[in-house]
Amino acid sequence: MVNRKELDPEKSPSARFGQLLRRLRDERGWTQDELAERMGCSGTHISAVETGRRPPTLQFARNADRVFGAGERFERLSRAARYTALLEGFPDYVAHEARAAEIRLYEVGVVPGLLQTREYAAALEADAVRREAITPEQADERVELVLRRQAALARIPSPLIFVVLDEGCIRRPMGDPAIMDAQLEHLLRFAERPNTVLQVAPFSMGARRPFSLPITVLTMPDRSLMSYAESAQRGHLERETGLVLPMLTAYHQLQAEAPSQAASVDMIEQLRKGTL
Q1: Least enclosed by CB within 10 Å: which of 90, 116, 168, 178?
Q2: Is residue 4 part of a domain?
Q3: Which residues contact 139 (CB under 8 A, 6 or more apart)?
Q4: Shared domain check, 97 and 78
Q5: Whether residues 50 and 174 fall in one domain
Q6: How many domains does the chain contain in total?
Q7: How far apart are CA 41 and CA 57, in angstroms?
Q8: Are strands 225-230 and 215-219 parallel, antiparallel or unpaired?
Q9: 183 vs 49: CA distance, rounded Å
Q10: Pairing between strand 196-201 and 215-219?
């Protein structure tokens, strides 16, 4: 097709949304006007979304899911495209996280979002508001995303989730004692799930920890690998398998050096009792 703008679906969630919309439309042999009639909008609107000139609204995404029978696929992509209170690169990561077959997390200082209670997440973001790093509205947006990420992983088949927490994650108080106690209880329940492994890397591990910063490694359904890491300014999603493999190897070494899940659960239980 002459002058047909091609989008790179890896560039952003909006580009991925537009590319998917166009591909499914082409597969059915529909013109933009024919799709627009089914979705209750204009062909010009369809064109703008497909080429990334207009971000998809939530209602537009839900209509696309209905028309194409795509479950909530378009809705998830639209939410990733709309989040504005997040580091550059993170919404793109979230879209991949929702499809991953295996997730490996190492976190420092705070309980990671996939394991946070609503109250813990709210306390964390309230502190960011206090420091004027974000607005109250952006704090609400971040908490909402935490809960949506958790809901996206409650699927069948369930992804395997491996988590290693630096000891500081369970020792750093967040909110009042009741919030922290509920968060520790939530970690214990997480460890009981059949698709999860939870370990705590104690301070005493010292230099035996291969990572000094948080890291996430995703294994996708086709067994391809991705890693995600953050600086203070932005997040970086690495898709080159050759660059991710050393991180996966280091993660396995971290798991081998860290106490077992049973020992880690005991550590959390003793901390809850105030006897550690």
Answers
A1: 178
A2: no
A3: 85, 122, 125, 126, 128, 129
A4: no
A5: no
A6: 2
A7: 12
A8: antiparallel
A9: 40
A10: unpaired
Distance CA 191, CA 217 (A): 19
pTM beyond 0.85: the answer is no
Who's near 237: CB < 8 A, 6+ residues apart? 89, 92, 93, 96, 226, 227, 228
Question: Other CB atoms closer than 10 Å to residue 53's CB: what's the count?
Answer: 11
Distances (CA, A) of 81 to 18, 121, 173, 252: 11, 21, 32, 33
Name the nearest CA neighbour of 112 among 261, 5, 213, 258.
213
Both 142 and 18 in one domain: the answer is: no
Question: For residues 42 and 38, what is the distance between their CA atoms, to the nearest angstrom?
Answer: 10
The CATH number given to whatever domain includes residue 228 is 3.30.870
Neighbours of 195 (CB within 10 A): 13
CA 155 to chain centre: 14
17, 81 in Cβ contact below 8 A? yes
Q: Looking at residue 108, what DSSP letter applies?
A: S
- Amino acid letter for position 227: S
Cα end-to-end span (Å), the chain: 68
Distance CA 207, CA 187 (A): 25
Q: What is the pLDDT of residues 147-169, one digit of tens each?
A: 988 988 888 889 999 999 999 99
Q: Cα separation of 40 and 61, whole Å?
A: 12
CATH of the domain at 63: 1.10.260.40
Angstrom CA distances, 259 to 52, 103, 208, 238, 271, stand at: 47, 19, 12, 29, 16
Do residues 177 and 42 share a domain? Answer: no
pLDDT in tens, 6-57: 766 666 667 888 889 999 999 999 999 999 999 999 999 999 899 877 778 8
